[in-house]
Amino acid sequence: MSFRKGVLISEFEDRSVQDHGSGWSNLWDTGKSDLWDRGKPSPALIDIIENYSRSEDILHPFTPDGRRKKALVPGCGRGYEVVMLSLHGFDAYGLEVSATAVAEAKAYATKELTAPQAYNFGHGPKIGDWPPTHSADRGVVEFLQGDFFATDWSHNDMKFDLVYDYTFLCALHPTRRAAWAERMMSLLNPRGVLVCLEFPMYKDPSLPGPPWGVKGVYWDLLSSRGITGSGECTRLLYIQPQRTHEIGMGTDMISVYARNE
Ligand SMILES: C[S@@+](CC[C@H](N)C(=O)[O-])C[C@H]1O[C@@H](n2cnc3c(N)ncnc32)[C@H](O)[C@@H]1O
């Protein structure tokens, strides 16, 4: 999401916060997704998945007892990361408030899973047959339409082992941040991880969004001093990615929070 704020900010400035979902749907319906769409999965996420997915690692696609892990990408847009996570062995779910985005993500996934492009993979250690040549080696891909803050999109109150946030928190009005943190924690299994590619870190947080500047915001929300103060999660990693989308090069950070048991 660059700062073509004439379009993005003006879409939201006269809407109530409760109506922001309609604003995002309108942007999709009027063909404005190029304002944020990067055209491929995040290299930073690919690298961290591949570097922390050895057998006992937190980002391995299977639990120690052999269950395939479930991953969620809220505000997944065209679903690049959903497909990539499936190709790395996770059952991957994308959530979008926009019906148009869900349709575009389904079309992208159908095409991409037929002949996955090299951009889905980095140079990390391989697990078994990786890149997967058989569909059985991949996880499922499913796109759900709904509001992240509601519960009606989830099958049987589904919980996840990995949730990925990129340009989702920064898309939400700051008054929704505490609710974002609570909802994230409620969606994670114990020991599940929230992976945040923090962007934009270079934007003054006092300026209007979206995107809203997030420097310090994830930590404030998720550290043991955040949410309820009861230490619901622990930050396991905080690193500057070597590869990331060009717009965040040199400023993006990756943080990984585990939900405490
Ligand atoms: C800035 S875009 C980023 C999309 C995607 N992460 C990407 O990098 O291309 C934010 C996305 O979040 C979706 N979104 C906004 N609010 C949402 C909500 N409450 N629940 C689900 N999706 C939402 C929008 O439709 C939009 O596609």
Automatic annotation (TrEMBL):
Entries under CDD domains matching the protein: AdoMet_MTases
Superkingdom of the source species: Eukaryota
Gene Ontology BP, a term: methylation
Pfam families named among the record's database cross-references: TPMT
Keywords from the UniProt entry: Methyltransferase, Phosphoprotein, S-adenosyl-L-methionine, Transferase
SUPFAM superfamilies: S-adenosyl-L-methionine-dependent methyltransferases (SSF53335)
One Gene Ontology term of the molecular function aspect: S-adenosylmethionine-dependent methyltransferase activity
Protein name per the record: Thiopurine S-methyltransferase family protein
